[in-house]
Amino acid sequence: MIRLELSGEHTRLHSTLCAQCPQGPAGCCVSPPELDWTDIGRIVSLGGRGWLLEQIAAGNLLPVSRGLELRRVRKREERTAPRRSKCVYHGPRGCTVPAERRAATCNYFLCEDAFAERVDGRADPASAASRQAHALLREVYGRWDGELAAAVADLPEGPPWDAPFLEWLGAAFERLSSAARGELAPIAPPG
User: Fold this and answer.
1) CB 186 within 8 A of CB 136
2) Mean pLDDT, to the nearest integer, of 56-82?
3) Contact (Cβ atoms closer than 8 angstroms) between residue 17 and residue 127
């Protein structure tokens, strides 16, 4: 069953199927998305600048040309299970970091199996609205990331990965988010 948590650019999609993922215990966390420029700005705008700096220093987030790559580690889900590479933040019960510290994709992505799941023999009533929210978020975040990537590419020395750079990304994300209120209205929180 799918549950759609409307919150504009912070909208989240949940599925009961994730707890019993047909792809295995680590599910989509075996191939985590990068934190692209928009994700980094979003995390900073939600108060995560210090966390990002700590995780970069710890080697869990690795600077790459498109943002930050999440380190992958080899772990066992159970003592008798083989070791598998997966996201450094994946634990026995799923993600170990709160939603405001994750890539937006981690919050709004559902696999096709989740969308196809049946509830009492019928299509999940939340499936269509969830697909629309997913498509809108994917398009908006992709466009925003293109704009931020172009701005980062203009930095003569490249990204410095310090507090002022992260604050700049956070402010840029907030500007983009503010300008898109009308576009994000279909997934705005109720009320």
Assistant:
1) yes
2) 89
3) no
Query: In the numeric block, which tokens belong to residue 90?
Result: 């994946």
What is the C-alpha to C-alpha distance for residues 104 and 182, in angstroms, rounded to an integer? 19
pTM for this structure? 0.91
How far from 136 is each of 39, 105, 165, CA to CA, in Å?
16, 12, 28
Beta bridge partners of 160: none
**Which two structure tokens, joined as six digits, stand for 100?**
């405001």
Structure-block tokens of residue 67: 């943002």
pLDDT at 118 over 80: no
Structure tokens at 191: 């009320």
Please tell me the distance from the alpha carbon of residue 114 to that of residue 22, in angstroms, as a whole number. 10
User: Using one digit for the tens of pLDDT, what is the confidence trace for 132-166?
Assistant: 999 999 999 999 999 999 999 999 999 999 999 99
Distances (CA, A) of 40 to 49, 61, 64, 90, 187: 9, 11, 13, 19, 21
